[in-house]
Structure formats: structure tokens, C-alpha cells
Design goal:
- By secondary structure, the chain is of the alpha/beta class.
- It has 5 helices and 7 strands; from the N terminus they run ββαββαβαβαβα.
- It has a 7-stranded mixed sheet with strand order 1-3-4-2-5-6-7, sandwiched between helices.
- A hairpin with a 2-residue loop joins strand 3 and strand 4 (about 70-75).
- The two termini are about 20 Å apart.
- The structure holds guanosine-5'-diphosphate (GDP).
- Guanosine-5'-diphosphate binds next to helix 1.
Amino acid sequence: MSQFHRAFFFTSAYEERDLPSSTSIEIAFAGRSNAGKSSVINTLTNQNRLAFVSKTPGRTQHINFFQISAGKFLVDLPGYGYAKVPASVIRHWQSVLENYLQTRQALKGLVLIMDIRHPLKELDIKMLNWFSPTGKAIHVLLTKADKLSKQQANNTLREVDMILSTTYSNCSVQLFSSQSSLGVDTASAVINGWLDDK
Ligand code: GDP
């Protein structure tokens, strides 16, 4: 059993001072709204509703922490790119996320989720540019791969991999589908490796 099947909701943070202090390893999940981030977290933890906590009214702009074991957390970052969000909310999001990604000591790696039909949008690149200089690991999931043929999905995987590998170090990418479970074992292995890395 994967160690994150035990995950449970721990706390929400709206701004930096709300971030929990008792953490030693955090793995963050980021992605555009509707990219499939909640489904990824639910699939990986094998819990139908865990990440929907992050979609409840009042929590969509929060950083949500799911505890796995003492000191170890999966961290669901607010979805971005939703058109109807006021400018003040976007500014808040930018400063909290940028600061969290660039300075959070406990943060070990970033799982960046993109809809395979719309990869590498402007805000995805922004996340990569904020986080990549830390030298920490980034793993991209091209999710909803079931929406494309196997060949189309593999073509997109190759293209994205080429762009990422020429621009960012320490960045890997794979196909994923919460619907068909494609790529779940690979993604779990990557994240488990980060959690266990001393
Ligand atoms: P979030 O806003 O990034 O958390 O996205 P959700 O996980 O809520 O997913 C957004 C929509 O995409 C929902 O209607 C999901 O059912 C659908 N979805 C998510 N993952 C997949 C997938 O792997 N395959 C397919 N076909 N649909 C998916």
C-alpha cells in the first residue's frame, strides 16, 4: 500500500503566517483550475473525496495540507487561471504561491498537473520559473491522457519532455489518467521516492 493512502485533511492556509510549522517534508500539487488536480490527489491517495475539501466554498484560494504521517504532507495549492477571479485575488495568489515555492524549506518537490490537451500555458511556465531555481525536483503529470489516442498522447509527451528538458533541470514528465489509472504506479513511485529521501 502506498504511504499516502493514509492521507487526511490537516489544515488550510490563506497566507504565509497560517502555514503549519510542524512539517518536515511537503510535496506540493499545482495546476490550472479544471486541469484535473483534485482527481489526481484523490486517485493517488485512493480516496474519492479527499481533495474536494479544497473545492469547498471559502477554501479554493487556500493552500490545503493533507497529512500522511508525522511531519509528512501532500500540499494542494490553489488552482490558477480561472477567468472570473478578481485582480486582487490573483495578486494575493501570486505573492503567496511565489513565496511558498521559492522559500519553503520543507517543500521537497512539485507535482505540476496539466491537461494533456492544453499543456504549458503561461501560468504553468510561471510556476516552473518560480520553482525551478530552487533546484528541487519537478514532476509533470499530463493528465486526462484517456482523452487522446495513444499515439497523440505519446506525441504530446515527447514534445513537452523536449521543451522541459531543454529549459529546466530536475524536471520529469509522464502521462496520467485519473479515469483509466494510467501512470498511477509511476507517479506514486516518484512521490514516494521524494517522501523517503533523507
Ligand atoms: P481541478 O479543478 O484541477 O481540481 O480538476 P478536477 O479534478 O475537479 O477535474 C476537472 C474535470 O475534469 C472533472 O469533470 C473531472 O471529472 C475531469 N477529469 C479529471 N481527471 C480526468 C481524467 O484523467 N480523465 C478524464 N476523462 N476526465 C478527468
